[in-house]
Every structure is written in structure tokens, then in C-alpha cells.
Amino acid sequence: MAFLRFLMLLSLIVWLGGVIFFAVLAPTLFSVLPTRHLAGSVVAPMLTKLHWMGIVSGVVFLISSMIYSRSTTGVAQPFALRHLLIYAMLALTLISQFGISPKMAALRASMGDIDSGCNHESCPPSIQRAARLVDATGDRRASAGTRCRLPDSAPVLNI
């Protein structure tokens, strides 16, 4: 019993501790390293490792928690609140790992070296729209991360 509770706590500590650590470390890397490309090269594999830590931790928690519930109450309680929350966390982690991360990698590969900037043709449409909006409003803070410079002939959004 004590070992199962230990596994439950350990898995949550590893998972949530990793998320908190990553949330602090990633912005720090982008502010300390000389280029955003280098920071992205460091953060991308860390994000993959964080996802896999979360997936393994979630599965370990669910298995140990259900065994613990079954041994104490006689029922595994798969729909207990703690299990529903872990299901939701696992679903979000899986979506991030297998849905969002591949799209980020493809976008990053298509842009090449982000610090050298990109021309209007190589920028994704969403970045082009953001750059046009910035041109229309004059607010350069919104384009600080894009480095996409559109030619003067590009249409500007009317607000």
C-alpha cells in the first residue's frame, strides 16, 4: 500500500515538477542564448522529453492509483475525480506531443534560421497576416518574434 502511494506521489511530482521547471527554463533560454534559433534547438528536444515524462508518469499514476483503490475499497474507480483529471492531463499531453509538436517542427523547418529573417514568400500565411496588421496599426511589439518583412507593395489590412 505504501509503495503504491509512493508511486502515485512520485509520478505526480515528476510530471508537474517537469512542467514547472520547463515553464521557467524555456523563456530563460530564449532570453539568455545569443539567438532564438539556438534556443529553439535546445527547447524542442526538451519539450519532447517533457511530454514522454508526462505520458509515463500519467500511466504509472493511473495504474498504481487503480490498484490502490481496488485493494482498499474493492473497486478500481476509473471515474474517480483524480482519474478524470489525469485522463485530461494525459489527453492534453498526447495532443501536444503528437498534434502540436510535429506542426511546430514542420513550421520551424520551413522557416529555416529564424534569426536571419524571412521574406514574404517563405513566411506562413498567419505570419504574413500578422505582419500586415502590424503595418496597419504601427504596433511593432506584435511582430517582435516574427522577423517577417513584407514588401511595400503587399496589401495592408484595413481595421
Name the features.
159 residues; mainly alpha; 2 domains; 4 helices; 71% helix; elongated
Could you describe the 3D structure shown?
This protein is an all-alpha fold and 159 residues long. The chain folds into two domains: 2-113, no CATH class; 117-159, no CATH class. Helices cover 71% and strands 0% of the residues. The protein is built from four helices and no strands. It starts with a helix and ends in a 22-residue tail after the last helix. The model is unreliable at 140-147 (pLDDT under 50).
Question: How is the secondary structure organized here?
Answer:
Layout: H1 2-32, H2 36-73, H3 81-111, H4 125-137
Helix pairs in contact: 1-2, 2-3
Quaternary organisation: single chain
- How many domain regions? 2
Shape: elongated
State the low-pLDDT regions, or none.
140-147
Q: What percent of residues adopt helix (DSSP H or I)? A: over 70%
Distance between the termini: 63 Å
Query: Mind summarizing the main beta sheet?
Result: none
How much β-strand is present in the residues? under 5%
Summed up, the helix count is 4
How many beta strands in the DSSP annotation? 0
The Rg value, from CA coordinates, equals 22 Å
**Mean pLDDT figure:** 82
Order of helices and strands: HHHH
Which structural class should the secondary elements be placed in? mainly alpha
